[in-house]
Amino acid sequence: MENVWVDQCRVFQEAHGETNSDFNNLLYIKTNERRGGFVRSIHMTNFAARPIKGGVLSIETDVLYQWRRLLPTYQRRLTPIEGVHVSDVKVGAAGFRVNITAEREAPVRDVTLTRIAIDGAAGPRSTMLPVFQTVRGASQSPR
């Protein structure tokens, strides 16, 4: 997957007359060691959302769910991820800000976060485990 542009989106959900979001992450990129391929040049700009359960950005490269125990991995084909750019995002609240997990052999590269405002987020300022390179930006709006 490459050259994806998502611009000017609003994520709002009303339930029973009150704000209630079951929405997880605004941008979620997932893959596993059995997929291969690549993810590059992903751009998300001008987003607004009410409170979300997850975060503004989550990248996971070890997503196998129940298949991890059911089927062995015969050939590892890691997916390189690079060039993920998120800017001008406003979120009512979030469970976390950023989560990036990757394999040591294929770190996530060139991630930028610019003008990210979250009214309230749980956990540390940013969560990036265990491997990432060139991650810049991310701020929290004052409470």
**Count of the domains:** 1
Spatial order of the strands forming the largest sheet = 1-5-7-9-11
Which oligomeric form is depicted?
A: single chain
Strand content: over 45%
Distance between the termini: 37 Å
Cα shape: globular
Instruction: Please provide the ordered H/E string of secondary-structure elements.
Output: EEEEEEHEEEEE
Average pLDDT across residues?
79
Number of DSSP strand runs: 11
Give the low-pLDDT segments.
Answer: 126-143
Biggest pleated sheet:
5 strands, parallel
Number of helices: 1
User: What is the structural class?
Assistant: mainly beta
How many whole angstroms does the radius of gyration measure?
Answer: 16 Å
Helix content: under 10%
